[in-house]
Amino acid sequence: MSLTLTSDLVAQYQEQVESEASSSLAMNACWKSDPLDMCLRRNKVVECNHIFTHKVENEGRPVTNQKSSGRCWIFACLNVMRIPFMKACNIDEFEFSQAYLFFWDKIERCNYFLNKMVECAKRGEEVEGRLVSFLLHDPISDGGQWDMLVNLITKYGVMPKKCFSESYSAENSMRMNRILQSKLREYTKDLRAVINKGGDDAAVADMLSTQMGEIYRIVSICLGIPPKTFSWEYYDKSKAYHKVGPITPLEFYNEHVKSAYNVEDKLCLVTDPREKNAYGMAYTVDCLGNMVGGRKTIYNNQPVELLMSLSADSIKSGEAVWFGCEVGKRFAGKQGIQDLEIHDYKSAFGVEVNLGLCKADRLVYGESLMTHAMTFTAVTLNESQTAEKWRVENSWGEDRGEKGYLIMTSEWFREFVFEIVVDKKFVPEEVLSVFSQEPIVLPAWDPMGALARKEPVLLQL
């Protein structure tokens, strides 16, 4: 049976809304205001404070800003990495070059995509089939996952931001991405034509090499070419002069950064409560990666309470935590508050919003997915050592929250955090053993792959 919206039925709806004093008041308020500002609970804003029982010794400075790009995963990683590095160098302020890793991710990601298109063609996937259509919809995006960061850093290293600074297209990546997307779709057609005509592997490899030469030119023009070697000069807190280099970025990572923060010692755990995806199992997402021959993106699925416990253990030991979440739900952006009760939708609209489905059903019905990566730097534990609230380092500049830092309740964590990265020393042996499993492959369009498909941030919440 279907419902037809008759004029009588619409009139009934209108009469009901107009007869409600609360709806009329809300309508007047919403006429000139952001609906989320209208729903904001004043008492929740007032009672928030950035005092925590456990906090990393020194947070990174300055507060970083990814601008209009989807590089949060890179920023969050380098924000975590710089804390122990700054301590080792005895310096007050430092940033690693986010643009440097962004450059190599674009190059590697395009090559990965084109090789996947060759693989799909050889295994008989049709262009208009769901898999290839999905991949062609967004051939290159800004997002990424932890294992992709490990691929980049262990192959290319890192460098100070002063040695490879931001460009317009690093901070505003949409135009560059559109150019790359156009070329990748064109290249896909050309590769499939060669394969369909019976071209051998050598012919495909020759075409790939030519295509990647053009990709390299485009990315270089937009982002600049990173230096093969650099020298970094700095004063430490005692005003003593230091110089590192000339040195390659990979040597810099291996010789000066790795001892403070080794990305290969950090493990990614996720929480996916969907009934079909059991805890204690390893998963991956089809065609999700950024480097041919690189490590796979592996999800070790565990209950959310374990993720909270391990995050708290890491912070208590002085180590910040990289994490992925759905940032926009129950979030007061200007105030920097992530709290399930920060907005009173019920009083304003007469219905609940965001929480009408459980976390598992939100994933199933397209209401939830990972959209942003940030960093935990502090936690408050109650008398029973259960986490109550978290301090979050964001990468949207100093204008949000407390000079760029957000506050998150543990109730919000349970609903909207999906993954964390902690050192393997904090992870129980039975959880570590999951990484030895052959991962179950989720389809390319699964929501657990969403963080790696992020578009540039055009409007921050």
TrEMBL record:
Protease as a keyword of this entry, yes or no, is yes
UniProt cross-references to InterPro entries, sorted A to Z: Papain-like_cys_pep_sf, Pept_cys_AS, Peptidase_C1B
Where in or outside the cell? Cytoplasm
Annotated Gene Ontology cellular component terms: cytoplasm
- From the UniProt record, list the reaction(s) this protein catalyses: Inactivates bleomycin B2 (a cytotoxic glycometallopeptide) by hydrolysis of a carboxyamide bond of beta-aminoalanine, but also shows general aminopeptidase activity. The specificity varies somewhat with source, but amino acid arylamides of Met, Leu and Ala are preferred
Q: Which Pfam families match?
A: Peptidase_C1_2
Its keywords, alphabetically, are: Cytoplasm, Hydrolase, Protease, Thiol protease
Active-site feature positions: 72, 372, 394
Judged by the first EC level, this protein's enzyme class is hydrolase
What EC number(s) is this enzyme filed under? 3.4.22.40
Look up the domain of life of the source. Answer: Eukaryota
Q: Give GO MF terms, alphabetically.
A: cysteine-type aminopeptidase activity; cysteine-type endopeptidase activity
Main location group: cytoplasm
Which GO BP terms sit in this record?
A: homocysteine catabolic process; proteolysis; response to toxic substance
* PROSITE patterns (UniProt xref): THIOL_PROTEASE_CYS
Q: Which PANTHER family match?
A: BLEOMYCIN HYDROLASE
Family in the record: Belongs to the peptidase C1 family.
Protein name per UniProt: Bleomycin hydrolase
Query: Which organism is the protein's source?
Result: Penaeus vannamei (Whiteleg shrimp)
